[in-house]
Write a structure and sequence with these properties.
2 copies of one chain form a homodimer.
Chain A lengths: L5 H6 L22 H11 L7 H21 L3 H10 L8 E2 L6 E2 L1 H13 L6 E2 L7 H14 L4 H22 L2 H4 L4 H4 L1 H13 L3 H12 L13 H21 L15 H5 L6 H4 L11 E2 L10 H14 L6 E8 L1 H6 L8 H4 L3 H11 L9 H5 L1 H7 L2 E5 L8 E7 L4 E6 L12 H12 L5 H12 L9 H5 L3
Parallel strand pairs in A: 5-6
Antiparallel strand pairs in A: 1-2, 3-4, 5-7, 7-8
Helix pairs in contact in A: 2-11, 3-5, 3-7, 3-21, 3-22, 4-5, 5-6, 5-12, 6-7, 6-10, 6-12, 7-10, 10-11, 10-12, 11-12, 15-18, 18-20
């Protein structure tokens, strides 16, 4: 169930306004030179062109990504990747966040991309469910350790990388995803190529070649979900895009119509498309504005319940023993995806709305620790979990919940969550992001180091060297 | 024209017996565990299981590939790749054939794969037009320099790698190709993973994971034809497959049904398939037996004409001045693809049947030198070219030609070529392969070194260290 419903599970953040997708037939002529328009956009956009809100979102995206990469850095998936590939790495040009190893920039891009996705806790574009930061930041942070990159140039590259991958993703979503591709890896490679190419100062023609080299290296089948290979996808997309930009910088030629050509990326990997998503309001709106961040370490359909239960926990300071029973009214999709009554592992806990409610009431959180094997086996939690019941209510949105908690002394406490925290309509505050960051970095970086690192992320625009973020994130 | 007709151009080797393709619908259940059957085949097959003819074909495939890699090694495409990526390479674990550089094994696999394909002169599977050697040998030769691999183990891995990629290719050809994928890069990655995984001694489960990691990294859109990125495809396929095997060897997990799963490779990258091509006679027949080698440095539809003109050149020792006119009767496809009357560059010469006839009569060859800018501008050749005429004859096969040459002194010389040399029905002899090898290595390796290297290829089975081939091929 985990795998097959992944798309709807991730996409089920209520409150999103998703424009209806009208696929174009391939007999319709593409707009002239879509790839060239994107290349020109990347080449010509300057830091000064970016609205303040866009720059701020870039800092939030960066901080969230750094926290996820540090938090994931000790995962066995990362250990396996480093152990397999470090013997073939070049000089220690770039660091692995949260660890002591340094690798060449291409390997570092791969490994940091893996770390940042391995907990399934990274950012999500609200329309196309791409995880935008992984392919882009993994590449440009490594590059920034190898050659001088100012914070403002870093922000510009980050914004453009996300813009390119998400515009391309929008143009083929959902048919590309429905074909079985993992869109973060397949569209992400363009984001990495664009951002890396921007920092390398590619000419327009070289940027077109970088896109061609990116197009020819899509990464990621959905069949890999549930295995370590899923988090390989954003990492390899970062590495492939950086490779594409480096090759293009040495005039390694490629197609100059890699998106729209008859046998180009769009036609080969998608059964439908709408190029307007790529070209519309180019340079006026930036897709990073549609980025969202997960407050809780599970799929978004459980977020409203966790949000509400944490609020009840904070407001009433109840012990589990004081709770007689809890009733949740939820959208049908919640029960379709997360109806495990008695999860046995942390991973199964991510698919149990009963566990989610109980742990949030008991511990006041929904982070990594609350979806561990320890948490789902905790006697207090399992006892309370058995007193949680659900009622399906189709009038609710997917990111809403109505909670009725009855105490043993007869009180009836109600909580209606209109939009779960972290959804597009109720974004995580900067403070929320900092709390999440600290939770992820706990035990890996000292509190002082955490604050120093968050400070660097918030101040990214003004940093003389963007690479200092990677150095501050080393263990 | 070059790009769009590439498939039919390459496939137009007459005399091939191509079984009709009957695509299966995706609602039909796949045979149980196709991926596992392939993994078991790779794990269990031993050198002693390989028939003598298969082993001999492996040596021929190796010799032909080494010649192509040496011959392509000085191409600007290879220069660009090395200049872009060498700064990020690990230790000099493996050599670049025909050059002095040494790179880590993954980068070496990439660059040798590029070299070996950049002249479009490497081997071609007669059914699915995969260039089988590039993805496989580029990977395992690099690996053989890094850890001890005997010649017999090398041959076993080579045969199995080609078997895996070509069986998978057969299962989706032609619909996969017609979708726009460059099958050498997309199926080739499985060949590299299988061969590399065999040498790394993967368990069955690890081999399944290696296939999963390969499946998720297909390389190559046909849109890239005509650019340097085309030869990037077999190189990157080699590198990706080797990466997949290395990761799997450290228990980096992946799907165990990466071919046949609903969102696995076959369903995602092809609109039709027939799994029988994968499972039929597994361990009884080997696809390397269907490998062919190009005698001439151009598309196969011109090969019969070159073959016949070289025979006339050798038999009659005519000077161009003695020739009054030449008439060629050819299959219609020849004129569809190669009708340029006045080519201006070596590349255009590859699409001129007139140039091909003239240069073969004048110089008695059809190698790299005969499709150079120099050759198409040679006054003697252009003068003779203008006296070549063509007649379309639908009763001929694509690999046939009827040549009528009239001399100035009134003689009428005829030559009918029933199957061009290099076609499946008239394979190149070992001696032909050696001549081709020498032509490719000329000016890069000394004649002594050429003979030493060819000797090592012929004797591959008995070599204590297969990696000695790479060392002997260094400049």
């Amino acid at each position: 169930m985990v795998n097959m419903n992944r798309r709807v599970f991730l996409a089920a953040s209520g409150g999103m306004s998703v424009a209806p997708f009208i696929p174009q037939t391939s007999t319709q002529a593409p707009p002239a030179e879509v790839t060239r328009m994107l290349a020109r956009h990347v080449i010509s956009t300057k830091f000064a062109n970016l609205p303040a809100g866009v720059r701020k979102e870039a800092a939030r995206t960066l901080l969230n990504w750094v926290g996820c990469a540090v938090g994931g850095s000790r995962h066995e998936t990362v250990d396996a990747a480093i152990s397999a590939l470090a013997p073939f790495s070049g000089p220690g040009q770039a660091g692995i966040l949260g660890r002591k190893e340094r690798l060449d920039i291409l390997r570092a891009a791969l490994v940091n991309g893996i770390s940042s996705h391995v907990l399934d806790f990274d950012d999500t574009h609200s329309r196309n469910i791409i995880h935008p930061a992984g392919p882009v930041i993994s590449a440009i942070l490594a590059l920034s350790e190898h050659r001088p990159v100012s914070g403002s140039d870093f922000v510009t590259a980050l914004v453009l990388g996300v813009d390119v991958e998400c515009r391309i993703g929008n143009a083929v979503y959902p048919p590309h995803y429905d074909t079985g591709w993992h869109i973060t890896g397949t569209a992400g490679v363009f984001g990495s190529a664009a951002a890396s190419g921007k920092l390398l100062g590619l000419s327009e023609r070289q940027m077109l070649w970088a896109f061609g080299l990116a197009a020819t290296q899509p990464v990621g089948l959905q069949e890999m979900f549930g295995t370590m290979t899923k988090s390989f996808h954003p990492g390899r997309a970062a590495e492939n895009g950086l490779t594409a930009a480096l090759l293009a910088s040495r005039n390694f030629t490629s197609s100059e119509q890699s998106l729209e050509a008859k046998y180009g990326w769009v036609n080969v990997v998608s059964t439908g498309h709408d190029y307007n998503y790529i070209t519309r309001k180019l340079g006026e709106t930036y897709e990073i504005s549609q980025n969202t961040y997960k407050p809780f370490a599970c799929g978004v359909v459980m977020h409203a319940t966790i949000d509400g239960c944490i609020q009840l926990h904070n407001e009433h300071k109840l012990t589990a023993n004081q709770v007689d029973r809890v009733e949740l009214k939820v959208h049908p999709l919640v029960m379709q995806l997360t109806s495990k009554k008695t999860p046995q592992t942390g991973l199964e806990g991510k698919f149990s709305i009963y566990h989610a409610a109980a742990i949030a009431l008991v511990e006041g959180g929904g982070g990594i620790a609350q979806f561990s094997d320890r948490a789902v086996r905790d006697a207090t939690v399992t006892s309370l979990r058995d007193r949680v019941s659900t009622v399906v209510d189709s009038t609710l949105h997917e990111d809403q919940v109505r909670i009725v908690l009855t105490t043993r002394d007869g009180r009836r406490l109600e909580k209606f969550v209109e939009h779960a925290v972290g959804s597009a309509d109720h974004p995580m505050s900067d403070r929320d992001l900092e709390m999440k960051f600290s939770g992820l970095a706990e035990g890996i970086l000292s509190p002082d180091r955490q604050h120093q690192l968050m400070d660097l992320c918030w101040k990214i625009e003004g940093l003389p060297q963007a690479g200092s973020i990677a150095q501050a994130a080393a263990a």
